[in-house]
Amino acid sequence: MDVDEAKIALIAMRDEILALSEAAKDNRKPVTLDQQSVGRLSRMDSLQVQAMDKAQDAARAKKLLRIEAALGRIAEGDFGYCVTCDEAIGEKRLEIDPSTPLCIRCAT
């Protein structure tokens, strides 16, 4: 994978994750415990949505860290090489996920 293509893909991935996080921020707000305005089942559903979105947000944060690290490797000229063994990462692997820091051997 070409470094410029990887950079464009990584920036697009980062922008998409940030947009998803922004769109779902209301789901992470505290749930109101007022029995008068919200029934028990609606409140339980809201709590479940909140918990799921917090978990998704944590996963998005981890993915953002991987993307930022990959952009850092591009800036340093180390993109495409495994951070563990310093061997080249397979082109198909980088096409699937340009943020991957490990070659297939080190990943397994």
Structure description:
There is one protein chain. With 108 residues, the protein is an all-alpha fold. It has one domain. The protein is elongated, with a radius of gyration of 19 Å.
Secondary-structure blueprint:
Blueprint: H1 3-23, H2 40-76, H3 91-96, H4 104-107
Helix pairs in contact: 1-2
Biggest sheet descriptor: none
The number of distinct helices, counting runs of at least 4 residues, comes to: 4
- The number of strands is 0
**What average pLDDT do the residues reach?**
87
Number of domains: 1
In angstroms, what separates the terminal alpha carbons? 22 Å
Shape: elongated
The helix fraction, in percent, is 55-70%
Order of helices and strands: HHHH
**What structural class is derived from the secondary structure elements?**
mainly alpha
Q: Main traits of this protein?
A:
single chain, mainly alpha, 108 residues
Task: Summarize this entry quickly.
With about 110 residues, the protein is an all-alpha fold.
